[in-house]
Predict the 3D structure of the following.
Amino acid sequence: MKTRIQTMLSAHPQPQSLFDQDTLAECIAACMECAQICGACADACLAETEHLTHLLRCIRMNLDCADVCAATGRILSRLTSPDQTMLRAQLQACMTACKACGDECERHGTEMNMQHCTVCAESCRQCESACAALLGRLSESADNSRAAVHPY
């Protein structure tokens, strides 16, 4: 079943060819979901009143990751005249934020049995993986472009 994200990408009058559209749609969805989950986890951490001081770093990581993921999803949704260098940097930043937030939340999920942090860690891992897959496609696309220009 085609998602609305896929439908929107395919409806664009000038679809770009840097990415496979299914991989791109999966990454956009993972980024947007992770942004929402991280925001919700930050809120849940704020409700953990007896552990609030211990969770300050987690809350900060949640909010930073949510912002980076949301920005990444929005940037990836723009198909007109993409800049490969900027896309690469944004995907790497998103992977870095998701790794840091996922590690922090995984620790709280395991050590403090905080289910909201476990869910957040899973979402961060999924987003990190989706960004890595898309980054791999971007590198393949750049390699293919260079080979077409310089076949030797």
In short: Helices lie at 4-11, 21-47, 56-76, 84-111, 115-149. Residues 17 and 141 are 8 Å apart (CA to CA). Residues 115-149 form the longest helix (35 residues).
